Amino acid sequence: MRRQFSKPKVFALGIAAASLVLAGCAATVGSAPTASSSEEAVGVEAALVSEITVFRSPTCGCCGKWIEHAEAAGFQVKDEVTEDMSAIKQTYGVPQSLTSCHTTVVGDYVVEGHIPAEDVQRLLTEKPDIAGIAVPGMPIGSPGMESGDYTEPYTVFSFTESGETAAFAEHS
Ligand SMILES: [Cu+2]
Fold first, then answer.
1. If you measure from the C-alpha of residue 10 to the centroid of ligand 1, how many angstroms do you get, rounded to a whole number?
2. Neighbours of ion ligand 1 (CB under 5 A)
């Protein structure tokens, strides 16, 4: 389920997210990618960006699963493997409090972490005046982080170049 927010909300983030990134995808062990994501596959229209670039570290398994999710939704993924993800996040201006594992470049936007493809498509359709969107940490149940049927509620945040954040979408 997704709700859209009109009022910006700021959440306390960071410590939990950082430790999750260090722990690296442990929750995905033994879980299979769900087939349901392909049902959202329609929707990348010709006019929208279809080629995206994913930066990820070589050891990141859940990043690969998110790539599969994006491909199932119709995106063509350029897979860039790098040892220095913090440099990538700095280059693309991802606020430190919003960092996750992989960083994706979608047209002029930065898409950080395990964002549902439907939110990427909404971003491309609505073209808001922001730098990008992010799911901090690696919430269990987000695309690429599936673990059985369990989904922990999580928020997709938008961020601007000056570092302002707001809720973009909610998932539970
Ligand atoms: Cu991840």
1. 22
2. 62, 101, 138
C-alpha 83 to ligand 1 mean position (Å): 15
Question: In sequence order, which residues have a C-beta less than 8 Å from that of residue 160 and are 6 or more positions away?
Answer: 129, 130, 131
Q: How far is the CA of 63 from the centre of ligand 1 (A)?
A: 5
The rounded Å distance from CA 62 to ligand 1 centre is 4
Q: What is the pLDDT of residues 127-139, one digit of tens each?
A: 999 999 999 999 9
Name 18's Cβ contacts closer than 8 Å, sequence gap at least 6.
99, 137
Selected residue with higher pLDDT from 35 and 49: 49
Query: Which residue type sits at 166?
Result: A
**Per-residue pLDDT tens digits for 117-160:** 999 999 999 999 999 999 999 999 999 999 999 999 999 999 99
Residues 6+ apart with CB under 8 A from 84: none
Rg (CA), the chain: 14
Q: H-helix or E-strand containing 54?
A: strand 51-56
Domains for the chain: give ranges and CATH numbers. 2-24+50-171 (3.40.30.10)
